[in-house]
Amino acid sequence: MIELRSVSHHYGPRTVLSGLDLELSERRIGVIGANGSGKSTFARLLNGLVLPTRGQVLVDGYDTRTAGREVRRRVGFVFTDPDAQVVMPTVAEDVAFGLRRSGLSRAQIAERVEAALSAYGLAEYADHPAHLLSGGQTQLLALAGVLVTEPGTLVCDEPTTLLDLRNARLVTELLAALPQRVVLVTHHLQLLDGFDRVLVLHEGRVAADTDPASAVTAYEELLA
Ligand SMILES: Nc1ncnc2c1ncn2[C@@H]1O[C@H](COP(=O)(O)OP(=O)(O)OP(=O)(O)O)[C@@H](O)[C@H]1O
User: Fold this and answer.
1) Quick check: 206 and 22 in contact, CB under 8 A?
2) How close is the Cα of 213 to the center of ligand 1, in Å?
3) So what's the ipTM on this one?
């Protein structure tokens, strides 16, 4: 469970999020809102990539400010641009990178990496240079690299934005099938069908916190 207590965030003099009090426990949570409404900042607060200027973010009781490692073990993050996330020369090495401090043996790591590569359709690319993958494959690699660590929650910041329709569908289907809790920031409102809860951010505040259809209506009214 992720809890935000009186959270505000400022970049310099600029208030980007203010007065957020939320408990996030649902399995599928969407976050929508206009450009600049604070969605990415919100997403980054959830795993401590951004620390709140005021207030606290707690993940299973761990404060992102003081227990970053515990938090990141529980909350994985997938960026819009997967290239930002790929750090090792080959596909298999990149997936293994997330397990380097896991305490698992080399054999156990190899087994987990193989399973992750198979699950995300990358088995035949294990020894392929990671930077030569297509955009869609790179996003799958980024997902595999995060999910191999088995976080309880996956936060995705517009994971399909840079992908063509086919790859966007692939990533969407993959996300839909995950057993994990998913917090999805997106401008693609149709991705939120069937979600348990959708937050609409507007000028740094939660303007609506409701089911997908009502959230889309609230969002459209804000933009009207
Ligand atoms: N590192 C930063 N330093 C200064 N200002 C920032 C920084 N990151 C974001 N901002 C500003 O904070 C505001 C909210 O940005 P954020 O990226 O959280 O919004 P967003 O809703 O995700 O936008 P978009 O839909 O365009 O991705 C924007 O005005 C942005 O310019």
Assistant:
1) yes
2) 26
3) 0.96
